[in-house]
Amino acid sequence: MHASQPRCHRVIAIDGPAASGKSSVARELSRRLGFVYVNSGAIYRAITWHILQKKIHPEESDRIAGALRVAGITCRLQDNESRILIGGVDPGEHLRDDPVNKSVAGVSQFPVVRQLVAKKLHEDAQSHDLIVEGRDIGSVVFPDTPYKFYIDASPEVRLQRRAAQGERDEIAIRDRADSLRPVSPLVIAKDAHVIDTSHLTIQQVIDQIIGLLKKMGLPI
Ligand code: CDP
Asked: Under a CB-based contact definition with an 8 Å cutoff, are residues 220 and 131 in contact?
C-alpha cells in the first residue's frame, strides 16, 4: 500500500525498529533545524490506548474502525512538537503503559488504522516542515521525500536502551509483528540512508544526518 502524497512541506523521515534511538535523534534534529517533530508511533499508541479504554479487544478490527469513526482525533502543536488529542483527551502519560506496549503492534496492523494515521501526517505536512519518526514513513507515508533515514542498532543494544528507560517492553515480539504484517511492514526504504547507531552517541548520529542532508542540498 502506498499512501498518495499530496503537495506538502519538506519531510525528513526517520524509520527504524523499537528502541533504536529514533525519538532522541528526531527530537534533537527538530530542535536544530526548526522542523516540527512528529512521533507517528505516539499516534498509534494513542489510538491503542483509546481502544483499550473503550474495552475493545485489539483484534476486533470492525469495532476499532467504528470507535475511530466517532473518536475525534486532532493534532496540536506544543513546543514545536505535534501532540495528539483523542476524544478531547491528551493520553500522553499513558502512551508507554504496559497494556499499550503489548497491544500497539496488533492495532497498528489494520489498514483502517494506518490510513487514518497517514491522513493525519499528510495534513500536518500541509502546514509545516516535519521530522517524522516511525516504521513506514519513508516507504509508504511520504515515499516522495528525498530525506529518508533508517536508524538501527543491534538487538542487544536496543534491549539495553529500553531497559535503561525502566520499561517492560517486549521489543523483539513487537519488531517481529511490525516486520511481518502484510500492510506497511517495517522495511528499509530502498533510497534510505541506513545508520547503525549501536556504537554511536546521539550527537554523532545527528552530525551524520546533518552532513547527509547538506550533501542532498537541504539548505541548513
Ligand atoms: O518507541 P518505539 O520504537 O518502541 O515504538 P513507537 O515508535 O512508539 O511505535 C509503537 C508501535 O506503533 C510500533 O511497534 C508499531 O507497531 C506501530 N507503528 C507503526 O506501525 N507505524 C509507524 N509509522 C509507527 C509506529
From this structure: no
Which residues sit with their C-beta closer than 6 Å to ligand 1?
18-19, 23, 40-41, 44-45, 104-105, 108, 134-137, 174, 178
Residue nearest to atom 16 of ligand 1 (CA): 105
pLDDT given for residue 138 in this prediction: 98
- C-alpha 118 – ligand 1 centre gap (Å): 13
Q: Is the alpha carbon torsion for 100, 18, 28, 144 positive or negative?
A: negative
CA dihedral 56→60→61→65, nearest 10 degrees, is -30
Please give the class, per CATH, of domain 11-215.
Answer: alpha beta
pLDDT tens column, 136-169:
999 999 999 999 999 999 999 999 999 898 877 8
Query: Dmax of the chain from CA atoms?
Result: 50
Percent of all residues in the chain with a pLDDT value above 70, rounded to a whole number: 97
Q: Give domain limits for the chain.
A: 11-215
